[in-house]
Design a protein that fits this description.
Length: 303
Amino acid sequence: MNNPHKLRRSWYEESARGRLLHLLDADSFTEFLGPERRETSPHLALFDLPRQFDDGIIVGAGRIDGRPVLAAAQEGRFMGGAIGEVHGAKLTGLLHAAGKMQQDIVILFDTGGVRLQEANAGELAISEIMRAVLEARSDGVRVVGLLGGRAGCYGGGSLIAGCCSALVISEQGRLSVSGPEVIETNKGVEEFDSRDRALVWRTMGGKHRYLIGGADFFVEDDVAAFRTGAIAALQLPATLDQAVLDAEQTRLEDRLRHFGDAHDATEIWARLQIEHPGEIPEQDIETFLATANILRESADAAR
């Protein structure tokens, strides 16, 4: 991965199918409900909106480093990866299969959240996916999320990610319950300027999420790096029990107590005893990790 002559392939720039192709072992992926099935949304035609043959998510089975896994990849270039009825049903079904087959699952997130045109059907899809994630984890299955796509991971997608066993994120990854435009619309541009890209990445980006324990692995924007991160995440314990839930609650209470009155991510980084916190956004990955791996909040399964 550090070979300067090796061709890097940007995770951010890749399509969902391209990410799956290079994440999984060569020729190991079998797609479920492939393009020939034309499983499209029944709702979009009502709004005169184009449909996509896979409804913006690819699901199937493959291998990572020889390990059998189920995999799902959201396509952020179709309606911002928004989750509707069919999209949600495909992911929920895959999670149910993971529990029954006792196979770990990897989810490649790239979504702005619920598909508003599908209203309650989209909201129900989010809740069904979250329940399916927790059921799979209760059955001893690891659910690993990878975040670094164009659309980020917002809204209901972030709630699903928060239920995962482990998260792998890049600097380009963004993770937040509310997206920049949503915050600006509801609170005003004075509260949050969605056009301020530095503010968006500083507040919601991968470096910040890793520093506060919101993600377990931080990798560069490279498909090979995400593959390495996924392999590491699949080695973590799969336990989900009351002790884990109690630890999550404690961590979230501690986070609110330590950082709840902070007005900017740089204030939080300073409270983590990071010298020159304003330099964090400009640091390369090696420099950043040298500091982050010493001073970051431990994830402890809490996000």
